[in-house]
Write a structure and sequence with these properties.
There is one protein chain. This protein is α+β, with helices and mostly antiparallel strands and 572 residues long. 41% of the residues lie in helices and 18% in strands. It is built from 16 helices and 20 strands. The strands form three sheets. Strands 10, 11, 12, 13, 14, 15, 16, 17, 18, 19 and 20 form an eleven-stranded antiparallel β-sheet that branches. Helix 1 packs parallel to helix 10 and helix 9 packs antiparallel against helix 10. The radius of gyration is 26 Å and the shape is globular.
């Protein structure tokens, strides 16, 4: 129930996010009409449509993405026509009858309050069109929902969470609509300016359509929004999940949020023989879920590693639950564990048995368990390190261990482990495989599971394209001939790309450019100043680390050999 409340409150917060701006003209165009028969049906149609489309986008294949693009195109045409009829009412009489039904008559149906026809169907259809266009910024709350949807597949819980998020947004819009409607009516009565207000709303609707067509709703507005509401959403997550608090300088009592589930079902264990819940009785245990190509997980490793080294009476267990197929290879995980200098036990959870036992949904996730086998603290995502360490100290003290204090660890991360520059991350995680791909602009779209020659196009911010002969699969794209590449327009300090060699395992050379030139001082840990590097293993590669100030950049990577496999972009 808390998760549904969190989703709802996350939706409510969209009213203060710039990403809601393109939707407002469509909503407020009905501000002077009865709310129950005009505004409410429109908001319901918008919420239900968004939930349905988002569910498909999270769990379905490329056909769902393509279908949604057609739906967006139809919605853009419908709402542009609606705006035009608000601006020039006589235009409706000059259109063909089918278009009049979808546009001009759609607008007039709600205007004819005294008519026998109900304006509800017209308003509901406008809501459906708006729902097809609405692209809310993927803040922490929506990100958690979509991650859970991708992992758990299509189910009622996924759709209900997305619907709760959409209904939260609809609630805040409804309140704004009611308030705006009263102001609208007062201004109209006092000035007698109904026709001019109508035309002004028409201009606003057409401007919103232009914003969506130009991609500003998921480009500039996304970058502005991520900094605007992310901290609030993180605060909601932390408040609604049980957490330790400090009061009057003394640790507050920690709640019991669950019991220690069994650790059975792991395919293998690294750095340790198999551990069991029964064998850990009387121990304070930290369990962290991670996967080695996840940038968020990699940035938490320095702290978990430091806690394992400092607190000798703390048992740290890393549960490696894979996202991509190559992460199921135990040898790949073993190599990553060695390179990351992880000395604590790691369970290979390829079947998600431990993941499901904990009811986990996130990478990374921490569960801290007391000596009595009770889960006393949970934390999802990055940050919160000081709070987690204080919980460790408190539980060790409760268990009677002498090494429970001594201040907090100080870490000096390097390379990919350096914390994200959250104030300048304006680009979202982007998958290359067609199942979860977004922002792909190569003409003609992706051709699933078949060799195809792509052109990169001219990507706008947060858009990307392929160049050359690629085969795009569900979770990755594979390069068939040397010389192919990927282009991405991004805004962030760091750009990472999960890559691997082909089935033959041969290294793949590449060259990176930023705005058409060698990266120089903005090169990542896996490139030199000339932008050159080599793909040798399946892992995350840091390709760009911009020097200040961070700006929008056009990134391009060209592969000098065939066979490379590309999985996902992440930013920091």
């Amino acid at each position: 129930m808390l998760l549904y409340l969190l989703a709802y409150l996350g939706g409510v917060l969209t009213i203060v996010s710039p990403c809601i701006l393109p939707v407002l003209p469509f909503v407020f165009a009905r501000a002077d009409r009865p709310f129950l028969s005009n505004g409410l049906p429109m908001l319901i149609g918008m919420a239900v449509t968004f939930a349905a489309v988002a569910t498909l986008a999270a769990v379905a294949g490329g056909w769902a993405v393509a279908a949604n693009e057609w739906g967006r195109s139809a919605a853009i045409a419908l709402l542009a026509l609606f705006g035009a009829t608000l601006l020039v009412p006589r235009l409706a009489d000059r259109l063909t009858r089918p278009l009049v039904v979808l546009g001009g008559r759609l607008s007039q149906a709600a205007d004819d309050v005294g008519a026998q026809r109900s304006p509800v169907p017209a308003s509901l259809l406008l809501g459906v069109a708006t729902g097809l266009l609405w692209a809310p910024c993927a803040g922490p709350v929506l990100g958690l929902i979509l991650t859970g949807a991708a992992l758990n597949g299509a189910n009622a819980g996924t759709s209900l969470l997305l619907l709760a998020y959409a209904l939260g947004a609809a609630t805040s819009l409804a309140l704004a609509l009611r308030a705006f409607g009263r102001i609208f009516a007062a201004v109209k009565r006092s000035l007698g300016a109904g026709e001019w207000i109508r035309r002004g709303l028409g201009v606003a609707v057409l401007a919103a359509v232009a914003t969506i067509v130009l991609g500003l709703d998921t480009g500039l507005l996304t970058r502005v929004s991520l900094a605007g509401t992310a901290s609030i959403e993180h605060g909601l997550i932390d408040r609604l999940q049980p957490a330790a608090t400090q009061a009057a300088g003394q640790p507050a009592p920690l709640p019991v949020v669950g019991s220690f589930p069994p650790l059975t079902g792991a395919a293998d264990w690294l750095n340790s023989p198999p551990l069991t819940r029964e064998g850990l009785q009387g121990k304070v245990v930290l369990v962290q879920f991670w996967t080695y190509s996840c940038i968020n997980c990699l940035r938490t490793i320095p702290y978990v590693r430091a806690w394992a080294e400092k607190y000798k009476d703390l048992v740290v267990i890393g549960v490696h639950s894979p996202e991509f197929a190559f992460e199921r290879n135990v040898d790949n995980v073993r190599k990553a564990v060695a390179e990351l200098n992880i000395g604590y036990p790691v369970a290979i959870d390829n079947s998600y048995a431990i993941w499901r036992a904990f009811g986990n949904q996130y990478w990374p996730a921490q569960y801290i368990i007391d000596a009595q086998g009770r889960i006393r603290h949970e934390h999802f995502g990055e940050d919160g390190y000081d709070e987690s360490e204080r919980v460790i100290q408190q539980l060790l003290a409760e268990a009677g261990h002498a090494d429970a204090g001594g201040g907090l660890v100080a870490v000096s991360p390097a390379g990919v482990e350096v914390a994200s520059d959250t104030n300048d991350v304006g680009s979202p995680e982007t998958y290359v495989g067609f199942r979860q791909a977004q922002g792909f602009v190569s003409p003609g779209g992706a051709v699933p599971n078949a060799s195809h020659v792509y052109e990169p196009g001219l990507p706008r911010l947060n858009r990307w394209g392929l160049a050359g002969d690629w085969t795009v699969g569900g979770e990755r794209a594979s390069l068939n001939q040397a010389g192919g590449g990927i282009v991405y327009r991004f805004h962030a300090r760091d750009l990472h790309l999960v890559l691997g060699p082909g089935p033959d395992g041969k290294p793949v050379r590449f060259r990176v450019t930023v705005d058409g030139a060698a990266p120089g001082g903005s090169h990542g840990t896996d490139t030199d100043t000339d932008g050159q590097g080599t793909v040798t293993d399946h892992r995350l590669y840091q390709l760009v680390r911009q020097s200040s100030p961070v700006a929008d950049c056009s990134f391009e990577i060209r592969f000098l050999d065939p066979g490379v496999q590309a999985y996902a972009f992440t930013f920091g």
